[in-house]
From TrEMBL:
This is Peroxidase. Ca(2+) 1 binds at residues 62, 65, 67, 69, 71, 85. The keyword Phosphoprotein does not apply. Residues 1-19 form the signal peptide. Heme b binds at residue 189. The active site is at residue 61. Ca(2+) 2 binds at residues 241, 249. Its main location: secreted. It comes from Deinandra increscens subsp. villosa. It is found in: Secreted. InterPro entries: Haem_peroxidase, Haem_peroxidase_sf, Peroxidase_pln, Peroxidases_AS, Peroxidases_heam-ligand_BS, Secretory_peroxidase.
């Protein structure tokens, strides 16, 4: 019984040292922090709405490698020749680093050394999606910044556009996200753009014999080939949700059912009975249903392997670890 009790006490103490994210973590240490982020986003994102897509993708890529610890923002890591996540192929076009840097400068001016880059990414992502008319979600704070950024880990852990449903489910499960989270978070492809290189194999050389992906709608494939991505190595960009790239809506899911999901990873969601059932449920519900379910998954994603308490650090400059 005594042993039992000490284990209990140990867990309570350890739990509180380890800490968790908290609503309004900066309420006393930097009361204006969340407002500063929100105001800056409200001022600038309406002029550059495509940054909202860039930021949510940045948040996702950050969280999937070493947790949501701003490791993606590092230019170099201390003392080693490690390539950073930023220069890894899946970073492809992750944009918005300078936006986060400007926010960081404002927060350093207000309260030096208090607000982590990881929290800035999480808050700015949510606020920019809200400002562009998309869903909102809770962003508890208290994340700390990591010290390590590794290109090879990014390559291994960020899902690829050619991944099949089995790999995607496993990849998300590795981050404690379930198939519902997979289906909902993929809905972020309702906004933003992709380079032709992310899917041109489906148009030109799917199995290595100059063929197409038979699961891609042929009219859509023709259109992509002739107008959008005329060469296989094109660096042209296309809307992932044509005609609706700035609107966070359910059209992504209707396109999936029309075999017009842009990536194999998108169309894969229709090829598993559980994920397909979720897609159908979302389409039968309202936009508000989608938004509230998306919010739950986003909050979960924002908690992946976060560093709190005394682990990691509060970076002074988001691109470099403190010396
Ligand atoms: C399920 C596995 C996923 C795969 C395989 C995947 C893959 C990709 C790829 C290849 C691109 C195009 C990048 C480019 O060519 O520039 C892209 C764009 C994007 N992804 Fe994903 N993604 C996945 C999940 C997610 C999640 C979970 C989110 C956010 C919650 C997300 C948000 C976005 C956004 C917003 C864009 C557009 C970025 C922009 O406009 O700059 N994706 N994704
Ligand atoms: C980090 O790298 C980016 C380019 O990727 C550059 O614009 C920025 O100035 C660098 N920041 C620092 C502090 O080295
Ligand atoms: C992303 O990685 C590519 C190489 O794979 C590199 O050319 C590009 O500069 C990187 N992007 C950023 C923002 O660092
Ligand atoms: C380099 O990356 C490896 C993992 O790929 C990691 O174990 C190591 O700690 C990294 N080193 C630094 C200094 O970031
Ligand atoms: C999914 O992809 C993985 C890795 O490429 C492969 O090993 C597996 O056989 C594929 N599964 C299916 C059902 O195609
Ligand atoms: C999931 O994690 C395991 C163990 O770290 C790893 O071997 C595997 O490659 C991961 N799978 C995916 C699809 O990321
Ligand atoms: C298709 O891919 C195969 C294998 O990678 C390659 O040998 C072939 O040249 C490619 N064909 C075309 C038309 O690009
Ligand atoms: C890309 O395509 C163009 C035109 O088809 C060709 O001239 C060029 O060599 C290609 N580049 C690469 C890297 O394959």
């Amino acid at each position: 019984m005594k042993g039992f009790f000490s284990i209990f006490v140990f867990l309570v103490i350890f739990g509180s040292v380890r800490g968790d994210l908290q609503t309004g973590f900066y309420a006393s240490s930097c009361p204006k922090a969340e407002k500063i982020v929100q105001d800056y986003v409200k001022e600038h994102i309406p002029n550059a709405p495509s940054l909202a897509a860039a930021l949510i993708r940045m948040h996702f890529h950050d969280c999937f490698v070493r947790g949501c610890d701003a490791s993606l923002l590092l230019n170099v890591t201390s003392s080693s020749g490690n390539q950073t996540e930023k220069v890894s192929p899946p970073n492809l076009s992750v944009r918005g680093f300078d936006f986060i840097d400007r926010l960081k400068s404002l927060l350093e001016a207000e309260c030096p050394g208090i607000v982590s880059c990881a929290d800035i990414v999480a808050l700015a992502t949510r606020d920019s999606i809200v400002v562009t008319g998309g869903p909102s979600w809770k962003v508890p704070t208290g994340r700390r910044d990591g010290l390590i950024s590794s290109s090879s880990e990014a390559l291994a852990e960020i899902p690829a556009p050619f991944d099949n449903i089995t790999t995607l489910i496993q990849n998300f499960a590795n981050k404690s996200l379930d198939i519902k989270d997979l289906v909902l978070l993929s809905g972020a492809h309702s906004i933003g753009i992709a380079h032709c290189t992310a899917f041109s194999n489906r148009l030109y050389n799917f199995t290595g014999v100059g063929d197409r992906d038979p699961t891609l709608d042929s009219e859509y494939a023709d259109n992509l080939r002739s107008r959008k991505c005329p060469t296989q190595n094109s660096t042209t960009k296309v809307e992932m949700d044509p005609g609706s790239r700035n609107t966070f809506d359910l059209s992504y899911y209707s396109l999936l059912l029309k075999r017009r999901g842009l990536f194999e990873s998108d169309s894969a969601l229709t090829r598993n009975s559980n994920t397909l059932a979720l897609v159908n449920q979302l389409l039968q519900g309202t936009l508000q249903n989608f938004y509230s379910e998306f919010a739950i998954s986003m909050e979960k994603m924002g908690r992946i392997e976060v560093k709190t308490g005394t682990s990691g650090e509060i970076r002074k400059n988001c691109a470099v670890v403190n010396s």
